[in-house]
Every structure is written in structure tokens, then in C-alpha cells.
Amino acid sequence: MRVLNFVVLTLVFAFSFTISSCDNADNSSSEIKELQSRIMATHDYVMPMIGKVLHLRKQVQNLLDSCTSADCGDSLQAITYNLTKADADMMNWMHSYKEPIGQDTALKYLKNQEVAIAQVKEQILTSIEAAETCLKERQ
User: Fold this and answer.
1) What is the model's pLDDT at position 20?
2) For the segment 60-105, what is each residue's pLDDT rounded down to a tens digit?
3) Is the Cβ–Cβ distance between 56 and 131 less than 8 Å?
4) Rounded Cα distance, 37 and 79, in Å
5) Is residue 47 classed exposed, middle or buried when 0-12, 13-18 and 19+ CB atoms within 10 A define those classes?
6) Would you call 114 exposed, middle or buried from its count of C-beta atoms within 10 A (0-12, 13-18, 19+)?
7) Minimal CA–CA distance to 46: which of 3, 87, 12?
8) Percent of the chain beyond pLDDT 70?
9) pLDDT at residue 2 above 60?
10) What number is the average pLDDT over the span 18-39?
11) Which pLDDT score, from 0 to 100, does residue 15 have?
């Protein structure tokens, strides 16, 4: 009887442990999917803005080419640089992003990628804002 109780308790424990492990795997899997979804949503939000970045860079570059004062040139060069960096950062992020393999490293990788694409988004938005402000002031 004791052996039977021990076997039953062992089976119950093993079953509980298996269920618990599955729940953790399911939680990790859903967190991975959620992170991937947020990352792609951010990418999909800012990617269409690259055309605007390139257009603004061309407009600012035209102003820079016709600028005669050093102060004017310095600020326009900074804006051109930031627009170029925003475009380059987006392209670099897209080329370096890979679908993670294995749940062990996926969460850490995706969290890093979420931070990276958020930084790209911020760079794009601030460079667009600065260029638009500059162009409005010079009209």
C-alpha cells in the first residue's frame, strides 16, 4: 500500500511539474509573439517615413548649397547629418534583425531589438521635426 501511495504521489508531482513547465513555455511563447508584434508595429509605423526623411534631406541640402553664412551652414549640416543618420539607422536595423531561434535567447534578443527600433523611431521623428521646423523658418 505504501508503495502504491508513493507511486501515486510521484505521478501527481510529475504531472504537476509537467503542467507547470508547459505553462511557463506557453507564457514565454506568448511573450515572444507579443514582443515580435510590438517590434514589427514600430517598424511598420516608421518605415514609410523614410521617404519623407530622404525628401527633407534633399530640401535641406539645397538650402545648405545656397547658404552663405557659417551659422546657417552649421545648423543645416547638423540637420542633414541627423536625417542621413536616421535613414542609415533604419536600414542597419532592418539588415541586422533576425528571427530569434530558441526561447532561451529569444526574449533577451527581442527586448534588445525593441529598444533598438524605439531608438530608430525617435531618431526619425526628431530629425523630421527639426528639418520641417528649419524649412518653415526659412520660407
Assistant:
1) 41
2) 999 999 887 777 788 999 999 999 999 999 999 999 999 888 887 9
3) yes
4) 32
5) middle
6) middle
7) 87
8) 80
9) no
10) 73
11) 44
Q: How far is CA 123 from the centre of its chain?
A: 11
Which residue would you say has higher pLDDT here, 127 or 6?
Answer: 127
| Domain-wise residue ranges, the chain | 29-137
Output the nine-digit C-alpha cell for 106. 529569444
Q: Which three cell numbers stand for residue 71?
A: 551659422
Q: CA 34, CA 40: separation in Å to the nearest integer?
A: 10
Label residues 12-36 b or e (16+ Cβ within 10 Å = b): eeeeeeeeeeeeeeeeeeeebeebb
Is residue 1 predicted with pLDDT exceeding 80? no
Q: Kind and range of the H or E element at 36?
A: helix 2-46
Could you tell me if 39 and 114 are in contact, meaning their C-beta atoms sit under 8 angstroms apart? yes
C-alpha span between 118 and 110 (Å, rounded): 12
CB 60 within 8 A of CB 80: yes
* Cell 539645397 -> residue: 62
- Report the sign of the C-alpha dihedral through residues 102, 107, 111, 114, in that order: positive
Query: Residue 59: what pLDDT?
Result: 97
Q: How far apart are CA 33 and CA 110, in angstroms?
A: 10
